[in-house]
């Protein structure tokens, strides 16, 4: 007879995502996961096979999280340059209100693991593709709204703003608000 799970997978996966986000992949032990997820090692392995698979599922969960909680306004149908600038300015305020800003799980993972693990790198690549597509849509909308020149290279600018998002995640850990405003101001100015 198959055992029934005594926990909600979505809830424990959210807890795992938070642990990995706070500590990184390498520094997160199975013991810490047990404690924070509220389930034992057997249940972790029965549900996710191993720590790496749990981490990959956590990255997928993170992508869902940012869709709902971070990039929601930029995913709206008509979001353009004005919305992107507001999004970035609001990110500064949120960053400076959060004690111990932990940055972006995907950017942190890219810095920690890079391409050492192909499966994790693939999942991080999917996350960055997701951000690229948002940026490309925003830039196309900005062109349609007349916010940027009609001959703007959408692909190059989407790649540039993906890099801006990655850089902002790292910079927000140490830069003060004035420098972050400069960072964003220059990025927005170059596309106008």
Explain what the structure shows.
With 192 residues, the protein is mainly alpha-helical. It folds into two domains: 10-58, Homeodomain-like (Arc Repressor Mutant, subunit A), CATH 1.10.10.60; 70-191, Tetracycline Repressor, domain 2 (Orthogonal Bundle), CATH 1.10.357.10. Helices cover 71% and strands 0% of the residues. It contains nine helices and no strands. Helix 1 (9-23) packs across helix 2 (30-37), helix 5 packs across helix 7 (118-144) and helix 5 packs antiparallel against helix 9 (177-191).
CATH H level of the largest domain: which superfamily? Tetracycline Repressor, domain 2
Shape: elongated
Share in β-strands: under 5%
**What distance lies between the first and last C-alpha atoms, to the nearest angstrom?**
64 Å
Q: How many domain modules?
A: 2
Largest sheet: none
Structural class: mainly alpha
Q: Can you give the mean pLDDT?
A: 90
Return residue spans where pLDDT drops below 50 for at least 5 consecutive residues.
none
Determine and state the CATH class of the largest domain: Mainly Alpha
> Any idea what the radius of gyration is?
19 Å
Named CATH architecture of the largest domain? Orthogonal Bundle
The third-level CATH topology of the largest domain is Tetracycline Repressor, domain 2
Helix content: over 70%
Task: Offer a quick outline of the entry.
This protein is mainly α. The chain has helices spanning 9-23, 30-37, 41-48, 51-69, 81-97, 105-113, 118-144, 154-171, 177-191.
């Amino acid at each position: 007879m198959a055992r029934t799970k005594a926990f909600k997978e979505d809830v424990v996966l959210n807890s795992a995502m938070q642990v990995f986000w706070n500590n990184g992949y390498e520094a997160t032990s199975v013991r810490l996961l047990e404690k924070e997820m509220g389930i034992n090692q057997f249940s972790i392995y029965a549900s996710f096979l191993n720590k790496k698979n749990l981490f990959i599922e956590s990255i997928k969960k993170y992508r869902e999280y940012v869709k709902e909680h971070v990039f929601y306004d930029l995913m709206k149908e008509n979001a353009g340059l004005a919305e992107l600038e507001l999004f970035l300015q609001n990110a500064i305020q949120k960053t400076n209100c959060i004690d111990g800003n932990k940055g972006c799980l995907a950017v942190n993972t890219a810095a920690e693991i890079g391409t050492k693990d192909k499966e994790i790198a693939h999942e991080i690549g999917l996350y960055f593709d997701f951000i690229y597509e948002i940026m490309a849509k925003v830039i196309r909308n900005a062109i349609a709204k007349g916010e940027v020149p009609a001959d703007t290279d959408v692909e190059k600018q989407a790649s540039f703003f993906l890099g801006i998002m990655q850089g902002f995640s790292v910079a927000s850990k140490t830069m003060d608000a004035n420098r972050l405003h400069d960072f964003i101001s220059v990025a927005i100015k170059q596309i106008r």
